[in-house]
Amino acid sequence: MGIGIALGVLLPRIHAGATVATSRTVEVLGAVGFGILGLVTLIYSLLFLVVQSSNTTFTPRLNLFQDDPWIWRTYAVAVGLFAFSMSAFLEIGNAEKVTVAVPIFAFVVALGVIVLIRNIQAKAFSSLQVNAIVDLLQRRGRQVIDDVYPPKGGPARKTVPSTGGHPVRWLRPQTTLQQLDLRRLLNEAENGDAAIVFRTKVGQTLWAGATVAEVYGHLDDDAVLSACVTGANRTVDQDPLLAFRLLSDIGLRALSPAVNDPATAVQAWDAIVGLLVQLTSRDLDAGTVESPDGTTRIWLDLPGWGDFMREGCDELLSNARNSPMMLARATETLTLLEEAAPPGLRPGVEARRREVESDLAAGHAAR
Question: How much is the pTM?
Fold first, then answer.
Protein backbone atom coordinates (compact mmCIF):
# COMPACT_ATOMS: atom_id res chain seq x y z
CA MET A 1 0.00 0.00 0.00
CA GLY A 2 2.84 2.37 0.80
CA ILE A 3 4.38 1.82 -2.63
CA GLY A 4 1.02 2.48 -4.27
CA ILE A 5 0.57 5.75 -2.41
CA ALA A 6 4.11 6.87 -3.23
CA LEU A 7 3.67 6.13 -6.94
CA GLY A 8 0.27 7.84 -6.91
CA VAL A 9 1.87 10.98 -5.58
CA LEU A 10 5.01 10.93 -7.75
CA LEU A 11 3.78 9.88 -11.21
CA PRO A 12 1.33 12.80 -11.71
CA ARG A 13 4.23 15.20 -11.05
CA ILE A 14 6.01 14.05 -14.21
CA HIS A 15 5.64 16.78 -16.84
CA ALA A 16 7.78 15.38 -19.64
CA GLY A 17 6.45 13.29 -22.51
CA ALA A 18 2.94 12.69 -23.74
CA THR A 19 -0.06 13.89 -21.75
CA VAL A 20 -3.73 13.05 -21.58
CA ALA A 21 -6.76 15.03 -20.47
CA THR A 22 -7.33 14.95 -16.74
CA SER A 23 -11.00 14.06 -17.16
CA ARG A 24 -10.11 10.87 -19.03
CA THR A 25 -7.45 9.95 -16.48
CA VAL A 26 -9.86 10.46 -13.60
CA GLU A 27 -12.34 8.13 -15.28
CA VAL A 28 -9.70 5.44 -15.60
CA LEU A 29 -8.52 5.86 -12.01
CA GLY A 30 -12.06 5.73 -10.67
CA ALA A 31 -12.96 2.64 -12.68
CA VAL A 32 -9.75 0.83 -11.73
CA GLY A 33 -9.70 1.90 -8.11
CA PHE A 34 -13.25 0.98 -7.20
CA GLY A 35 -13.42 -1.97 -9.60
CA ILE A 36 -10.43 -3.58 -7.92
CA LEU A 37 -12.35 -3.74 -4.65
CA GLY A 38 -14.66 -6.28 -6.26
CA LEU A 39 -11.65 -8.46 -7.07
CA VAL A 40 -10.46 -8.23 -3.46
CA THR A 41 -13.89 -9.46 -2.39
CA LEU A 42 -13.51 -12.34 -4.84
CA ILE A 43 -10.21 -13.32 -3.22
CA TYR A 44 -11.81 -13.57 0.21
CA SER A 45 -14.83 -15.42 -1.17
CA LEU A 46 -12.60 -18.04 -2.77
CA LEU A 47 -10.57 -18.33 0.41
CA PHE A 48 -13.60 -18.97 2.59
CA LEU A 49 -15.15 -21.35 0.06
CA VAL A 50 -12.05 -23.49 -0.33
CA VAL A 51 -11.26 -23.56 3.40
CA GLN A 52 -14.80 -24.64 4.27
CA SER A 53 -14.90 -27.24 1.52
CA SER A 54 -11.46 -28.64 2.44
CA ASN A 55 -12.44 -28.92 6.10
CA THR A 56 -15.57 -30.82 5.17
CA THR A 57 -14.29 -32.97 2.31
CA PHE A 58 -10.67 -33.70 3.26
CA THR A 59 -9.39 -32.72 6.71
CA PRO A 60 -9.44 -29.62 8.95
CA ARG A 61 -5.63 -29.76 9.04
CA LEU A 62 -5.31 -29.09 5.31
CA ASN A 63 -4.05 -25.49 5.11
CA LEU A 64 -2.26 -25.55 1.77
CA PHE A 65 -4.54 -23.10 -0.04
CA GLN A 66 -4.75 -20.40 2.62
CA ASP A 67 -1.00 -20.69 3.23
CA ASP A 68 -0.23 -20.18 -0.47
CA PRO A 69 1.86 -16.97 -0.64
CA TRP A 70 0.33 -15.99 -3.98
CA ILE A 71 -3.03 -15.33 -2.32
CA TRP A 72 -1.59 -12.67 -0.08
CA ARG A 73 0.65 -11.29 -2.82
CA THR A 74 -2.37 -10.85 -5.06
CA TYR A 75 -4.24 -9.16 -2.24
CA ALA A 76 -1.28 -6.83 -1.62
CA VAL A 77 -1.02 -5.87 -5.32
CA ALA A 78 -4.78 -5.24 -5.51
CA VAL A 79 -4.80 -3.03 -2.41
CA GLY A 80 -1.69 -1.23 -3.69
CA LEU A 81 -3.46 -0.50 -6.99
CA PHE A 82 -6.45 0.92 -5.11
CA ALA A 83 -4.11 3.10 -3.03
CA PHE A 84 -2.35 4.28 -6.20
CA SER A 85 -5.64 5.18 -7.91
CA MET A 86 -6.94 7.19 -4.97
CA SER A 87 -3.68 9.00 -4.23
CA ALA A 88 -3.14 9.83 -7.93
CA PHE A 89 -6.74 11.10 -8.13
CA LEU A 90 -6.08 13.50 -5.25
CA GLU A 91 -2.66 14.54 -6.55
CA ILE A 92 -3.98 15.48 -10.00
CA GLY A 93 -6.37 18.00 -8.49
CA ASN A 94 -7.50 20.67 -10.95
CA ALA A 95 -4.75 20.16 -13.52
CA GLU A 96 -5.93 20.19 -17.12
CA LYS A 97 -3.55 17.49 -18.32
CA VAL A 98 -1.48 14.77 -16.74
CA THR A 99 1.26 12.47 -17.97
CA VAL A 100 0.04 9.46 -19.89
CA ALA A 101 2.14 7.29 -17.55
CA VAL A 102 -0.59 7.51 -14.89
CA PRO A 103 -3.44 5.76 -16.79
CA ILE A 104 -1.01 3.39 -18.51
CA PHE A 105 0.45 2.29 -15.17
CA ALA A 106 -3.03 1.77 -13.70
CA PHE A 107 -4.11 -0.23 -16.76
CA VAL A 108 -1.01 -2.45 -16.77
CA VAL A 109 -1.22 -3.22 -13.04
CA ALA A 110 -4.95 -3.95 -13.40
CA LEU A 111 -4.14 -6.51 -16.11
CA GLY A 112 -1.53 -8.01 -13.81
CA VAL A 113 -4.08 -8.31 -11.00
CA ILE A 114 -6.49 -10.07 -13.36
CA VAL A 115 -3.77 -12.59 -14.25
CA LEU A 116 -3.05 -13.17 -10.57
CA ILE A 117 -6.75 -13.63 -9.85
CA ARG A 118 -6.95 -16.20 -12.64
CA ASN A 119 -4.00 -18.03 -11.05
CA ILE A 120 -5.78 -18.07 -7.68
CA GLN A 121 -8.97 -19.36 -9.29
CA ALA A 122 -7.04 -22.25 -10.82
CA LYS A 123 -5.48 -23.04 -7.42
CA ALA A 124 -8.92 -22.88 -5.79
CA PHE A 125 -10.44 -25.31 -8.29
CA SER A 126 -7.50 -27.69 -7.81
CA SER A 127 -7.92 -27.47 -4.04
CA LEU A 128 -11.47 -28.80 -4.39
CA GLN A 129 -10.44 -31.90 -6.36
CA VAL A 130 -9.28 -35.00 -4.52
CA ASN A 131 -6.89 -36.06 -7.30
CA ALA A 132 -5.10 -32.71 -7.21
CA ILE A 133 -4.94 -32.66 -3.40
CA VAL A 134 -3.53 -36.19 -3.09
CA ASP A 135 -0.98 -35.49 -5.83
CA LEU A 136 0.04 -32.21 -4.20
CA LEU A 137 0.45 -33.81 -0.78
CA GLN A 138 2.55 -36.59 -2.24
CA ARG A 139 4.78 -34.11 -4.08
CA ARG A 140 5.19 -31.96 -0.98
CA GLY A 141 5.93 -35.08 1.05
CA ARG A 142 8.58 -36.18 -1.43
CA GLN A 143 10.16 -32.75 -1.34
CA VAL A 144 10.46 -32.60 2.44
CA ILE A 145 11.84 -36.15 2.55
CA ASP A 146 14.48 -35.15 0.01
CA ASP A 147 15.33 -32.09 2.10
CA VAL A 148 15.49 -33.83 5.47
CA TYR A 149 16.81 -37.34 4.80
CA PRO A 150 19.96 -37.84 2.69
CA PRO A 151 20.41 -40.93 0.52
CA LYS A 152 22.01 -43.97 2.13
CA GLY A 153 25.73 -44.34 1.94
CA GLY A 154 26.73 -41.04 3.53
CA PRO A 155 28.91 -40.59 6.60
CA ALA A 156 27.71 -42.21 9.81
CA ARG A 157 25.81 -40.09 12.31
CA LYS A 158 28.17 -38.75 14.93
CA THR A 159 27.64 -39.55 18.59
CA VAL A 160 25.38 -37.18 20.48
CA PRO A 161 27.13 -35.36 23.36
CA SER A 162 26.19 -36.91 26.69
CA THR A 163 27.71 -34.67 29.38
CA GLY A 164 28.00 -30.99 30.11
CA GLY A 165 24.73 -29.87 28.53
CA HIS A 166 21.91 -27.78 29.94
CA PRO A 167 18.25 -27.97 28.91
CA VAL A 168 16.52 -25.17 27.04
CA ARG A 169 12.90 -25.06 28.15
CA TRP A 170 9.86 -23.57 26.50
CA LEU A 171 8.49 -20.98 28.94
CA ARG A 172 5.96 -19.40 26.59
CA PRO A 173 2.31 -20.35 25.94
CA GLN A 174 1.55 -23.69 24.32
CA THR A 175 2.12 -23.73 20.56
CA THR A 176 3.31 -25.90 17.67
CA LEU A 177 6.90 -26.08 16.46
CA GLN A 178 6.55 -25.34 12.73
CA GLN A 179 10.13 -24.88 11.54
CA LEU A 180 13.69 -24.34 12.69
CA ASP A 181 15.84 -21.52 11.37
CA LEU A 182 18.87 -23.78 10.99
CA ARG A 183 21.06 -21.27 9.14
CA ARG A 184 20.71 -18.72 11.92
CA LEU A 185 21.15 -21.35 14.62
CA LEU A 186 24.26 -22.75 12.95
CA ASN A 187 25.87 -19.29 12.91
CA GLU A 188 25.05 -18.83 16.59
CA ALA A 189 26.52 -22.24 17.44
CA GLU A 190 29.72 -21.51 15.51
CA ASN A 191 30.15 -18.16 17.23
CA GLY A 192 29.72 -19.76 20.65
CA ASP A 193 31.59 -22.98 19.81
CA ALA A 194 28.47 -24.84 20.95
CA ALA A 195 26.39 -27.85 19.97
CA ILE A 196 22.61 -28.17 20.15
CA VAL A 197 20.70 -31.43 20.52
CA PHE A 198 16.98 -31.03 19.86
CA ARG A 199 14.58 -33.07 21.97
CA THR A 200 11.42 -31.92 20.20
CA LYS A 201 10.44 -32.81 16.65
CA VAL A 202 9.20 -30.27 14.14
CA GLY A 203 5.41 -30.56 14.15
CA GLN A 204 5.11 -31.45 17.83
CA THR A 205 3.31 -29.39 20.44
CA LEU A 206 5.48 -27.27 22.70
CA TRP A 207 4.04 -27.40 26.20
CA ALA A 208 4.94 -24.83 28.81
CA GLY A 209 8.07 -26.14 30.52
CA ALA A 210 8.87 -28.70 27.81
CA THR A 211 12.53 -29.30 26.95
CA VAL A 212 13.13 -27.99 23.44
CA ALA A 213 16.83 -28.81 23.22
CA GLU A 214 20.02 -29.35 25.17
CA VAL A 215 22.95 -27.00 24.64
CA TYR A 216 26.58 -28.01 25.02
CA GLY A 217 28.90 -25.03 25.14
CA HIS A 218 28.38 -21.29 25.37
CA LEU A 219 25.05 -20.40 23.81
CA ASP A 220 22.16 -18.46 25.30
CA ASP A 221 18.76 -20.07 25.56
CA ASP A 222 17.24 -17.13 23.67
CA ALA A 223 19.40 -17.96 20.63
CA VAL A 224 17.85 -21.43 20.46
CA LEU A 225 14.31 -20.29 21.17
CA SER A 226 14.47 -17.47 18.63
CA ALA A 227 15.32 -20.03 15.94
CA CYS A 228 12.07 -21.90 16.65
CA VAL A 229 9.30 -20.80 14.29
CA THR A 230 5.99 -21.54 15.98
CA GLY A 231 2.30 -21.17 15.23
CA ALA A 232 -1.11 -22.74 15.62
CA ASN A 233 -0.87 -25.12 12.64
CA ARG A 234 1.72 -27.63 11.45
CA THR A 235 3.40 -26.80 8.15
CA VAL A 236 4.82 -29.23 5.61
CA ASP A 237 8.12 -27.40 5.00
CA GLN A 238 10.24 -29.28 7.60
CA ASP A 239 7.67 -31.73 8.94
CA PRO A 240 7.99 -35.06 7.05
CA LEU A 241 5.17 -36.66 9.06
CA LEU A 242 2.54 -34.08 8.10
CA ALA A 243 2.00 -35.38 4.57
CA PHE A 244 1.37 -38.85 6.04
CA ARG A 245 -1.06 -37.39 8.58
CA LEU A 246 -3.04 -35.50 5.94
CA LEU A 247 -3.18 -38.42 3.52
CA SER A 248 -4.29 -40.73 6.32
CA ASP A 249 -7.01 -38.24 7.32
CA ILE A 250 -8.31 -38.17 3.75
CA GLY A 251 -8.40 -41.95 3.67
CA LEU A 252 -10.11 -42.19 7.07
CA ARG A 253 -12.82 -39.76 6.04
CA ALA A 254 -13.36 -41.65 2.79
CA LEU A 255 -13.79 -44.92 4.74
CA SER A 256 -16.27 -43.45 7.22
CA PRO A 257 -19.85 -44.77 6.93
CA ALA A 258 -21.10 -41.26 6.15
CA VAL A 259 -18.89 -41.00 3.05
CA ASN A 260 -18.20 -44.65 2.05
CA ASP A 261 -15.75 -43.85 -0.75
CA PRO A 262 -13.19 -46.69 -0.73
CA ALA A 263 -11.71 -45.63 -4.08
CA THR A 264 -10.53 -42.35 -2.54
CA ALA A 265 -9.15 -44.26 0.44
CA VAL A 266 -7.18 -46.49 -1.93
CA GLN A 267 -5.85 -43.41 -3.72
CA ALA A 268 -4.66 -41.88 -0.45
CA TRP A 269 -3.17 -45.24 0.60
CA ASP A 270 -1.21 -45.54 -2.64
CA ALA A 271 0.27 -42.08 -2.03
CA ILE A 272 1.30 -43.10 1.49
CA VAL A 273 2.98 -46.27 0.27
CA GLY A 274 4.74 -44.27 -2.45
CA LEU A 275 6.27 -42.05 0.23
CA LEU A 276 7.24 -45.09 2.29
CA VAL A 277 8.98 -46.60 -0.72
CA GLN A 278 10.97 -43.39 -1.10
CA LEU A 279 11.98 -43.56 2.57
CA THR A 280 13.45 -47.07 2.12
CA SER A 281 16.34 -45.57 0.17
CA ARG A 282 17.01 -42.80 2.69
CA ASP A 283 19.27 -42.63 5.72
CA LEU A 284 16.67 -42.41 8.48
CA ASP A 285 19.39 -42.19 11.13
CA ALA A 286 20.64 -38.88 9.75
CA GLY A 287 19.66 -35.56 11.25
CA THR A 288 22.84 -33.59 11.85
CA VAL A 289 23.90 -30.16 10.65
CA GLU A 290 27.60 -29.50 10.17
CA SER A 291 29.52 -26.25 9.98
CA PRO A 292 31.75 -25.61 6.93
CA ASP A 293 34.75 -27.11 8.75
CA GLY A 294 32.88 -30.42 9.22
CA THR A 295 32.09 -30.00 12.92
CA THR A 296 28.64 -31.26 13.87
CA ARG A 297 26.78 -28.42 15.55
CA ILE A 298 23.12 -29.47 15.52
CA TRP A 299 21.42 -32.83 16.15
CA LEU A 300 17.78 -32.95 15.05
CA ASP A 301 15.07 -35.17 16.48
CA LEU A 302 13.65 -36.69 13.29
CA PRO A 303 10.89 -39.29 12.82
CA GLY A 304 12.01 -42.87 12.27
CA TRP A 305 10.57 -45.69 10.21
CA GLY A 306 8.19 -46.73 12.98
CA ASP A 307 6.82 -43.19 13.24
CA PHE A 308 6.01 -43.12 9.53
CA MET A 309 4.37 -46.55 9.62
CA ARG A 310 2.21 -45.63 12.61
CA GLU A 311 1.22 -42.22 11.25
CA GLY A 312 0.44 -43.35 7.73
CA CYS A 313 -0.74 -46.93 8.09
CA ASP A 314 -2.13 -48.05 11.42
CA GLU A 315 -5.30 -45.98 11.73
CA LEU A 316 -6.12 -46.34 8.05
CA LEU A 317 -5.69 -50.11 8.06
CA SER A 318 -7.64 -50.46 11.30
CA ASN A 319 -10.62 -48.64 9.76
CA ALA A 320 -10.38 -50.59 6.49
CA ARG A 321 -11.45 -53.93 7.94
CA ASN A 322 -14.89 -53.65 6.36
CA SER A 323 -13.59 -52.51 2.97
CA PRO A 324 -12.54 -55.41 0.72
CA MET A 325 -11.23 -53.01 -1.93
CA MET A 326 -8.95 -51.29 0.56
CA LEU A 327 -7.74 -54.53 2.15
CA ALA A 328 -6.95 -56.10 -1.22
CA ARG A 329 -4.98 -53.05 -2.31
CA ALA A 330 -3.18 -52.85 1.04
CA THR A 331 -2.14 -56.51 0.77
CA GLU A 332 -0.70 -55.94 -2.70
CA THR A 333 1.15 -52.73 -1.88
CA LEU A 334 2.49 -53.89 1.47
CA THR A 335 3.96 -56.94 -0.30
CA LEU A 336 5.72 -54.60 -2.74
CA LEU A 337 6.89 -52.37 0.11
CA GLU A 338 8.26 -55.37 1.99
CA GLU A 339 10.27 -56.39 -1.06
CA ALA A 340 11.65 -52.87 -1.52
CA ALA A 341 12.54 -52.30 2.14
CA PRO A 342 15.97 -53.23 3.49
CA PRO A 343 16.06 -56.10 6.02
CA GLY A 344 16.02 -53.83 9.04
CA LEU A 345 12.73 -52.23 8.02
CA ARG A 346 10.86 -55.36 6.90
CA PRO A 347 9.52 -56.71 10.24
CA GLY A 348 7.09 -53.81 10.72
CA VAL A 349 5.86 -54.07 7.14
CA GLU A 350 5.50 -57.85 7.38
CA ALA A 351 3.48 -57.64 10.60
CA ARG A 352 1.03 -55.21 9.06
CA ARG A 353 0.77 -57.26 5.85
CA ARG A 354 -0.09 -60.39 7.83
CA GLU A 355 -2.71 -58.50 9.80
CA VAL A 356 -4.30 -57.16 6.61
CA GLU A 357 -4.31 -60.63 5.05
CA SER A 358 -6.01 -61.97 8.18
CA ASP A 359 -8.68 -59.26 8.00
CA LEU A 360 -9.23 -59.94 4.31
CA ALA A 361 -9.56 -63.70 4.89
CA ALA A 362 -12.00 -63.10 7.77
CA GLY A 363 -14.09 -60.89 5.52
CA HIS A 364 -14.22 -63.57 2.82
CA ALA A 365 -15.20 -66.19 5.40
CA ALA A 366 -18.00 -63.99 6.76
CA ARG A 367 -19.48 -63.62 3.28
Answer: 0.82
